[in-house]
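Title: Request for sanity check on DUF2188 domain-containing protein prediction

Description:
We are preparing a figure and want to confirm that the structure record we downloaded matches what your pipeline produces today. Could someone re-run it with the sequence below and paste the raw C-alpha cells into this thread? We only need the C-alpha cell string, no images.
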Amino acid sequence: MTTYIVSVFEKPHWRTVLSTNDKAKAFDLAKEIGDKVRIEEVKPKPKPKPKRSVGQRQAC
C-alpha cells in the first residue's frame, strides 16, 4: 500500500502535515496550503525471498 506524505516548508525545516494512503486527500490538502508544499510517495519494499540451504529439497 502506497503512503503519501504532505510536508510544508517552515524555515529552516520541512514539517509533515499529513500522512495518508489516500492520494486525492493528499493532493487536496497540498492545493489548500499553496506554496512551499511537497508530496512524497512512499512505496513498500518487496520482501526478499527466503534462501534455501544446500541440503533442502523442494517438495513435489
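Thanks, this matches our download. The two ends are 33 Å apart (CA to CA).
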